[in-house]
Write a structure and sequence with these properties.
The complex is a heterodimer of chains A (292) and B (376). With 292 residues, chain A is mainly α. Chain A contains 12 helices and no strands. In chain A, α4 runs parallel beside α7. The radius of gyration of chain A is 27 Å and the shape is flat. Chain B is α+β, with helices and mostly antiparallel strands and 376 residues long. Chain B has 3 domains: 32 residues; 93 residues, no CATH class; 241 residues, Orthogonal Bundle (MetI-like fold). Chain B has 12 helices and 8 strands. Chain B has a 5-stranded antiparallel beta sheet, with no helix packed on it. In chain B, α5 crosses α7 and α9 runs antiparallel to α12. Classes of the chains: A mainly alpha (292), B alpha+beta (376).
């Protein structure tokens, strides 16, 4: 290679330094504005949560007071206790947990084989099935809930916790299948192959090699299922009357309840979801079946 | 890859059965609820016997002329007998043709079995028939137009805002700043927040004694709290709902956008930078075109979900001063209110139709655009 000659600049050293300084200033300004934007968006997200948390931990008198305070002084659990002691709330919370866990178990058991099939096999109809699953994920809950409620009444399954869990499983199943499929797709096929070369049967290879690697991802999918069921309100309010879940119970009594009940209720519903999202944040991107 | 071709189908079978059971079946049931009604028709007989040949059918409440009557005896288990009358009647059926035939006394209302020469049909055989009654009832309800208008207005306002905010969030997260994971978690929190909780969060801000009024009064901008949520303040209620929905449902679009952004090679953007494209040009000509497939998925998903907006509206407005389609579905279904699952199913079907229509429209627009681009 010959030595390259760079065009020489006619600018003096001072001028060059000034340009460099200006460029650096502009760069810093841009970084600063990106940080400012990032923080502004974070505040936009966190502010409403903070406000309702303040309400949930203020005294009921402060909750009804005006103007409202934005720090919980004095700190009090009275509002939360008031909420939890309301008729039917603990029962509804228990129903919510039972429905969500049943949904989680059913949905995971059904979705794992399906997800594995989609991730690992090439077979005629695979794309059609994938597309079908994608489209039922976007299916309106409202459309399903009314006829299912009527059918459940006919079958004497109406107003039962397990019926709602069956419905929620239908709603979460497509999402769970897609997440599980992307989790399995992330486990290198070579490992499975190696296990089989060393004498594992396909089932053994699956249980002893694939499963341990896929387990965290499947757990994330299961948690997501839990959150979806915990939050769902339309089907819940249509399919139950005396066995309401927490969101259904809160929605149903909304117009008859005061602000302390509403704010404490909102905080109570929010809390588990926030914690769970923290645990599954790494898997958020595979969640929507677009990466893979 | 493998020889056992039936294995994947076997693995998929439980899911397919479950989804068919819970998606395909309710679809059919929903159509039946919305478009089939229970009716009764009385069959006229050629002879005064219940298994004689039919001569016509009459709808309930048809007024009939009694032409002839016949007294039969029925033997009761205790050996006694009682009279049973059959009547030869004549009337116009639903198509306007005059029919005549024999009917049993139990199917008609008649003042005197021996003397009256007119009667009315009161019972018959149960049947199902196609009907637009429930759809008509839905459309003629004065809240239908309001619900439809509000739902569409919300979609038109919410979706563009969501996409702009989601793309900004995505670009911020992809800009290589520190604490990206922390910001990502914060931005993803609303993913786990239900529409009901989100509605209550924003209710706490917009209610009469809420935070917004607190700040307005404390800053001296108003002397007394302003009532945002009441009949007549539609714009304020819409604003509160739009903010709540943008706050809650932008995260999912953000996740899709970030996943899409990760798929764009860094070289493309750097090349743009080298050739002097400014930020807007880089977004418009490099990032957005490559993001389109992800955005389409997000757009269809979000629009369909937006047609079902429900708990946010109820939490903020109570569901009476302002209503949306899903809320009407619930109101018609609710056993404590209209208790009419047929009209509720009509609403559900209508939402389904809108969702299908909008997906079809999006896909067609996208295809038309792609064709235009490939021709250039």
């Amino acid at each position: 290679m010959t030595t390259e000659t760079y065009p020489t600049t006619s600018l003096s050293l001072a001028e060059q330094e000034q340009i460099a300084r200006r460029a650096k200033f502009q760069y810093n300004l841009r970084r600063a504005s990106i940080y400012a934007l990032a923080i502004a968006i974070a505040i936009w997200i966190l502010l409403p949560i903070w406000l309702v948390a303040v309400m949930a931990f203020s005294t009921p008198a402060d909750v009804r007071g005006f103007p409202k305070q934005i720090v919980p002084v004095p700190l009090s659990t009275d509002t939360m206790e008031f909420f939890l002691n309301q008729d039917g709330i603990l029962r509804a919370a228990r129903n919510s947990v039972v429905v969500a866990i049943t949904t989680l178990v059913l949905s995971t058991i059904i979705a794992v084989p399906a997800g594995y099939a989609i991730a690992r096999y090439v077979f005629p109809g695979r794309d059609a099935i994938r597309l079908g699953i994608l489209s039922v994920r976007a299916f309106p809950i409202v459309v399903l809930a009314v006829p299912l409620a009527v059918t459940f009444i006919e079958l004497d399954m109406y107003d039962k916790v397990y019926s709602l869990a069956l419905m929620h499983t239908a709603l979460t199943l497509p999402t769970t299948i897609l997440v599980v499929a992307s989790v399995f797709a992330g486990v290198p096929y070579e490992l499975e192959e190696a296990a089989r070369i060393f004498g594992c049967t396909p089932t053994q290879a699956f249980i002893r090699v694939v499963m341990p690697l896929a387990l965290p991802g499947i757990a994330a999918a299961a948690i997501l299922t839990f959150v979806l069921s915990w939050n769902e309100v339309f089907a819940a309010i249509l399919l139950t009357i005396s066995n309401r879940t927490l969101p259904a119970q809160i929605l149903y009594t909304l117009d008859k309840s005061g602000d302390p009940f509403k704010f404490a209720g909102a905080f109570f519903m929010l809390l588990p979801a926030m914690i769970f999202i923290f645990f599954i944040r790494r898997y958020l991107f595979s969640m929507w079946g677009i990466n893979k | 890859m493998r020889k056992l071709h039936w294995t994947p189908y076997l693995l998929l079978l439980p899911s397919m059965i479950y989804l068919t059971l819970f998606f395909a079946y309710p679809m059919v049931a929903s159509l039946q609820l919305a478009f089939r009604k229970d009716v009764q028709y009385l069959k006229l007989r050629e002879e005064p016997e219940s298994d004689a040949a039919e001569t016509g059918t009459l709808a309930m409440q048809t007024a009939v002329a009694v032409l002839d009557r016949m007294r039969l005896e029925e033997t009761l288990p205790n050996g006694r007998t009682r009279p049973i009358y059959w009547f030869r009647v004549q009337a116009e059926d639903t198509e306007g043709t005059t029919v005549e035939g024999w009917v049993n006394q139990e199917n008609i209302f008649i003042e005197s079995r021996t003397q009256s020469d007119t009667a009315r049909i009161v019972t018959g055989e149960a049947a199902k028939e196609w009907t637009f009654d429930f759809v008509k009832r839905m459309v003629n309800d004065f809240r239908f137009g309001k619900a439809l208008r509000t739902t569409i207005l919300l979609i038109v306002l919410i979706i563009p805002l969501q996409f702009i905010l989601a793309i900004v969030m995505g670009l911020v997260l992809q800009s290589g700043i520190r604490f990206t994971n922390f910001f990502l978690y914060i931005y993803a929190i609303p993913l786990g927040v239900s529409d009901l909780a989100s509605g209550i969060l924003w209710y706490s801000i917009f209610t009469q004694r809420g935070f917004l009024n607190s700040w307005l009064v404390e800053l001296g901008l108003r002397e007394r709290p302003f009532i945002f949520i009441q009949s007549g303040h539609e714009n304020w209620m819409i604003l509160a709902i739009v903010l709540a929905e943008v706050w809650r449902a932008t995260s999912i679009v953000m996740v899709i956008v970030v996943a899409g952004l990760q798929g764009i090679p860094k070289d493309y953007i750097e090349a743009g930078q080298v050739f002097g494209a400014n930020l807007w040009q880089r977004i418009r000509f490099i990032i957005l075109p490559r993001l389109m497939p992800s955005l389409q998925v997000a757009l269809i998903l979000r629009t369909i979900l937006a047609f079902q907006v429900f708990a946010v509206v109820v939490a903020i407005t109570g569901g009476d001063v302002m209503t949306v389609l899903a809320n009407e579905t619930y109101r018609w279904y609710d056993p404590a209110r209209f208790n009419n699952s047929n009209v509720a199913a009509a609403y559900a079907g209508f939402i389904m139709l809108l969702s299908l229509g909008i997906s079809f429209f999006y896909l067609r627009t996208v295809r038309a655009q792609e064709e235009r681009e490939s021709q250039q």
